[in-house]
Amino acid sequence: TYYGHHIYNSHVIGHRMPSHAAPRPYGSMDNQLPPEPHAPEVSPRAPEVSGGTDMSGLPEVSGAPEMQQTVNVSRVYFGVMFDAGSTGTRVHIYKFIQKDPVALPVLDNEMYHAVKPGLSAYADKPDMGGDTIRQLLKVAKKTVPKSEWKQTPVILKATAGLRLLPEEKARALLDEVKEVFEESPFFVPNNSVSLMNGTNEGVLAWVTVNFLTGHLYAKTRKTVGILDLGGGSTQITFLPKSKKTVHTAPPSYIARFNLFNSTYELYTHSYLGNGLVAARLATLGALGADGLDWKVFTSSCLPKKFREDWTFGGLTYKVSGVPDGYAGYKLCYYEVMRVVKGVVHQPYEVKGSSIFYAFSYYYDRAVESGLIDGSRGGVVEVRDFKKKAKEVCNKMTKYRPISPFLCMDMTYITCLLKEGFGFKDSTVLQLAKKINNAETSWALGATFDHFNNFNIH
Ligand SMILES: Nc1nc2c(ncn2[C@@H]2O[C@H](COP(=O)(O)OP(=O)(O)O)[C@@H](O)[C@H]2O)c(=O)[nH]1
């Protein structure tokens, strides 16, 4: 079933290298850039470029004046990035305008479309998984002008859902996707279909959010951190201010990548099994459990009279509240604590003052519980999650129609933020689904990485 479909025209989102940075010829660090520039030359004051496409972008109206004086050739190109997540598969179709040969491009448009369930639900039927990709490719064909198909790359990266599957099942799904891509009229680069590691997932989401918020300049020190809560895994990524954060972190939590001739050193980690849906299973003690057909998994995070068969990752579990026992925030907190305690590393400086953008399920649950307004996003403190979790858990009947899992989810989020990452009650979180009209997702960063090769290591 389709559950999300939109297209929008954004205003200019893009950044250039400052003049002191060494210029590079266009494409020098590019990885399989579309071969030919096709955009017309445009005048400095009216850089409209997207004539005749199905994604007719708004004429651009802003941009640094000095940039407009020095650059008078723009080119347009497209990128199609599939996010094969544990709970759904999404396609992001980006239209870029390259104005300045040595800067990241301007993002002119994003078309976003999503299907549920994710590829991992087709672990035993890879050809049906392939059909979901065909469905999404149709959207890409409608969106990208025909003349661009041959040079537009199609890429799919899978995250926690496939990481959690046995290797051969994940492989069969990825092979199937590759075949479907090969049938399509798009450009299929080498390694276009892959299982992405958690480090890249965290780094690329950081790139997306810092690009969209205007923080990606050469040698910039001011950036924002990101918190991404998926179904299967959760990521934290930020640029440490203090060396101590780097030195006290497990070595695999420090990632480096190249942009604008400098190397960024980030703190990043993806916790597999700590995504919101996987955490539900772990809280219920059901993760990796046998005897699913007879066992009922109970939790005091669920309404007492609740009982349901619940499917995740192709398996069905019987779950229920504790019929004659207690339910509520305190007991629930103890239960979810088991999923977090001793698992999540507390970075040295997270108690500091960096701003964190939180999206995906952080955003969804904040909206569902009424913490923020869905149309506008918002700023909250960690303590607001806690307060809302208490309210939801202690009034389960009121919130039950929204979701019987809302108490468990809100309590888990609170516990992950406080006990897990070690955030203070007063830490400010910027909740966002979109920034400047573009989806907050690693997909945009991954598309930049394809064209510019960040060499994440
Ligand atoms: N709006 C929006 N939500 C997204 C996007 N990508 C992922 N999500 C959200 O991410 C959450 C699930 O993450 P998912 O990718 O299935 O899990 P993962 O495999 O553990 O990373 C849900 O809240 C989705 O709605 C996106 O591009 N746009």
TrEMBL record:
Gene: entpd5a
Chain segments carrying region Disordered: 23-65
Pathway membership, UniProt: Protein modification; protein glycosylation
Gene3D superfamilies documented for this protein: 3.30.420.40, Exopolyphosphatase. Domain 2
Cofactor list: Mg(2+); Ca(2+)
EC number: 3.6.1.6
Reaction(s) catalysed by this chain's protein: CDP + H2O = CMP + phosphate + H(+); ADP + H2O = AMP + phosphate + H(+); GDP + H2O = GMP + phosphate + H(+); a ribonucleoside 5'-diphosphate + H2O = a ribonucleoside 5'-phosphate + phosphate + H(+)
Compartments where found: Endoplasmic reticulum; Secreted
Binding site for ATP: 231-235
Active site positions: 201
The protein's name: nucleoside diphosphate phosphatase
PANTHER family (UniProt xref): ADENOSINE/GUANOSINE DIPHOSPHATASE, NUCLEOSIDE DIPHOSPHATE PHOSPHATASE ENTPD5
GO cellular component: a single term: extracellular region
Assembly behavior: Monomer; active form. Homodimer; disulfide-linked. Homodimers are enzymatically inactive.
Function comment: Hydrolyzes nucleoside diphosphates with a preference for GDP, IDP and UDP compared to ADP and CDP. In the lumen of the endoplasmic reticulum, hydrolyzes UDP that acts as an end-product feedback inhibitor of the UDP-Glc:glycoprotein glucosyltransferases. UMP can be transported back by an UDP-sugar antiporter to the cytosol where it is consumed to regenerate UDP-glucose. Therefore, it positively regulates protein reglucosylation by clearing UDP from the ER lumen and by promoting the regeneration of UDP-glucose.
The entry's keywords: ATP-binding, Calcium, Disulfide bond, Endoplasmic reticulum, Glycoprotein, Hydrolase, Magnesium, Nucleotide-binding, Secreted, Signal
Location, primary (coarse class): endoplasmic reticulum
Molecular function terms, GO-annotated: ATP binding; nucleoside diphosphate phosphatase activity
Pfam families: GDA1_CD39 (PF01150)
Family: Belongs to the GDA1/CD39 NTPase family.
